[in-house]
Amino acid sequence: MAERPTAIVTGASRGIGRAVAVRLAADHRVIALARDEKRLGALSQEIAATGGECRPIVVDLAKPAQIDAVLDGVEADVLVNNAGVITRKPFTKLTPADWHEMMDVNVNALFHVTRHVLPGMIARGHGHIVNIASIAGRSAFPGGTGYAATKHAVLGFSESLMLEVREFGVKVSVVMPGSVATDMLVGDNPDKSWMLRPEDVADVVAHILASPSHALTYQVEVRASNPRKA
């Protein structure tokens, strides 16, 4: 029996990241990265109970030194850069701490994690990096100067990287969800019944990874099919 490929998922303790980890565990060995040790432990137990394998790694992705320490020598066939935070405020009320947190988690962590995993993918001649962006990566909204800026950066990073590495057998894809019913939207809208579920985004990620080796799905925008105002 062939060994399962390894998939790293960042921000895996909750929301989209957790759903992706659970979905990919059906045919991957999962390495789950996040700050919340308790939630990561629960995720690992859930995956193990269904016959899968999950290695939880507690790490603050806003701190490059921690990323360097936990990913030293780690190789993966799949990387899902999902970790993200949002602070929605008018620009005049956005603090430097708010700005730097979003940049550190949404953009800089993507750089640091990818730079650890990519060389091994290139050396082996295969691999797939999936970056979770947002519809905010091609649009804007009031209070989104920080968050939208990070997601625009993710799109620019992803497309440039895709063009650089596809000749080496490494794929880069980006998923752009609309509103997803996760903890990130607490307080924005009390009615989340119309929103995408994290599992919907996880299914899209799995579908992209299952595409034939000769085909690359670079960008997918996924929305709720029947959105409505609360």
Task: Walk me through the structure.
There is one protein chain. The protein has 230 residues and is α/β, with parallel strands linked by helices. It is built from 6 helices and 7 strands. A 7-stranded parallel beta sheet has the order 3-2-1-4-5-6-7, with helices on both faces. Helix 1 (15-24) crosses helix 6, helix 3 runs parallel beside helix 4 (96-124) and helix 4 (96-124) runs parallel beside helix 5.
Shape: globular
Number of helices: 6
Are there runs of 5+ residues with pLDDT below 50, and where?
none
Look at the structure and give the mean pLDDT: 92
Question: Main beta sheet: strand number and arrangement?
Answer: 7 strands, parallel
The portion of residues forming beta strands comes to 15-25%
Strand order of the largest sheet: 3-2-1-4-5-6-7
- The secondary structure category is alpha/beta
Helicity range: 40-55%
Radius of gyration: 17 Å
Number of strands: 7
Span between termini = 50 Å
Order of helices and strands: EHEHEHEHEHEHE
